[in-house]
């Protein structure tokens, strides 16, 4: 009987030691720095926005932030994705477009920083120059709010039309007050403009979509907005989040990384005036 009790006691001690040894192993596996990186999901159009974001991915990784960029080719889904929480931020639009989007869709999106400006340009199609534009010519322009008005104001600056001043950036072809060449307007989604240049006389294209299609906005555009004028402030592309997330630490780290000498040099050296840093 004594031998049996001794055996049971020995087994109990052994099991206890094994249990303690197992707990220690588990503890040692968590004693090290195993903190998972913070994931920051950002929606962006491919050129130049995703390219610019790629320049800071490693910098953010060193701070424990995993920057994940998802590319979109339109101007609607990146905003709805942030509003619905599918993405943490986006980078593709200027403030006037954002303001109009919130107004029209009841969304709650805010900008946290301005990064760069892309001058909008006029590109040749069937007609090779603005001076050669024939009577009754067709010009393709963006159909989205504010960018359409922006395109019409650029055409006005070339003396082709006059637009009701009261319409401002919300101008549409219905707000044209003078059209001596009887120009016809084809209103298309911004992403379609660069792919349809040969179907019209001229096209007014956002630089991001022009570059994505292989155009050099500096060399290939017949005319463009003045990067030195107030346009650069009005149409600066911004980092956008849902209201309430402006002070998110990862978002602020992203802004700091983007507004750096490294990114400024990348923009200037890569895009050579087609994209202009504003910080």
Descriptive account of the structure:
- By secondary structure, the chain is α/β, with parallel strands linked by helices.
- Helices cover 40% and strands 22% of the residues.
- The chain has a six-stranded mixed beta sheet, with helices on both faces. Strands 9-6-10-5-11 form a five-stranded mixed beta sheet.
- The protein starts with a helix and ends with a strand.
- Residues 1-32 have low confidence and may be disordered.
Order of helical and strand elements: HEHHEHEHEEEHEEEHEHHEHEHHE
Our Rg estimate from Cα atoms comes to 28 Å
Class of secondary structure makeup: alpha/beta
Note the main sheet. Answer: 6 strands, mixed
Residues in β-strands, percent: 15-25%
Major sheet strand order: 2-1-3-12-4-13
Count helical runs: 12
Helix proportion range: 40-55%
Looking at the structure, what is the overall shape?
Answer: elongated
- Poorly predicted regions: 1-32
Beta-strand segment tally? 13
Oligomerization status of the protein chains: single chain
Q: If you average the pLDDT, what whole number results?
A: 89
Termini separation: 86 Å
Question: How are the elements arranged and paired?
Answer:
Blueprint: H1 2-31, E1 38-44, H2 46-54, H3 57-61, E2 65-71, H4 77-83, E3 89-94, H5 95-105, E4 109-117, E5 121-124, E6 138-142, H6 147-157, E7 162-163, E8 176-178, E9 184-188, H7 190-193, E10 202-205, H8 207-212, H9 217-220, E11 223-224, H10 231-234, E12 237-242, H11 249-258, H12 261-271, E13 276-277
From the structure above, extract its key features.
single chain, 279 residues, alpha/beta, five-stranded mixed sheet, elongated, disordered N terminus
């Amino acid at each position: 009987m004594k031998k049996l009790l001794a055996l049971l006691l020995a087994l109990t001690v052994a099991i206890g030691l094994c249990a303690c040894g197992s707990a220690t192993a588990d503890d040692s596996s968590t004693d090290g720095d195993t903190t998972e990186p913070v994931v920051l999901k950002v929606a962006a159009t491919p050129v130049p926005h995703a390219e610019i974001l790629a320049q800071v991915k490693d910098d953010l990784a060193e701070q424990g932030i995993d920057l994940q960029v998802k590319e979109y080719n339109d101007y609607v889904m990146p905003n709805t994705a942030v509003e619905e929480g599918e993405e943490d931020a986006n980078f593709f639009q200027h403030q006037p477009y954002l303001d109009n989007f919130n107004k029209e869709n009841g969304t709650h999106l805010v900008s946290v920083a301005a990064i760069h400006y892309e001058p909008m340009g006029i590109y040749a199609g069937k007609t090779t120059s603005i001076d050669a534009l024939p009577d009754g010519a067709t010009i393709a322009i963006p159909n989205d709010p504010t960018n359409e008005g922006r395109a019409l104001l650029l055409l006005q600056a070339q003396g082709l039309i006059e637009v009701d001043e009261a319409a401002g950036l919300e101008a549409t072809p219905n707000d044209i007050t003078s059209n001596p060449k009887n120009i016809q307007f084809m209103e298309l989604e911004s992403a379609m403009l660069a792919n349809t240049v040969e179907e019209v006389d001229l096209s007014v294209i956002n630089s991001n979509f022009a570059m994505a299609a292989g155009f050099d906005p500096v060399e290939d555009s017949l005319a463009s907005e003045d990067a030195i004028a107030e346009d650069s402030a009005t149409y600066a592309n911004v980092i956008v989040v849902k209201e309430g997330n402006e002070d998110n630490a990862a978002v602020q780290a992203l802004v700091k990384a983007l507004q750096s000498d490294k990114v400024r040099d990348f923009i200037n050296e890569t895009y050579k005036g087609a994209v202009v840093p504003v910080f």
